[in-house]
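Please produce the structure of this protein holding zinc ion.
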Amino acid sequence: MIRLEPIAVEGCRVCAVNSRSRAIARDAGVPTAVAYCDAEIRNHPHRSPIVRRPLRALGIAA
Ligand SMILES: [Zn+2]
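Below is the modeled complex.
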């Protein structure tokens, strides 16, 4: 069976920490800790990856 795991979102510090912790937990053979890190990466909110700029910069009255 192929197992899928959540991927750390680029630039997210929460993901980075959990991704590191997950690798350590996996090396240490602690599946409950791996599952915990997976859940943390999956469940915390992320800001939109779309870069936004003010309408005024486009010459559109805001
Ligand atoms: Zn994240």
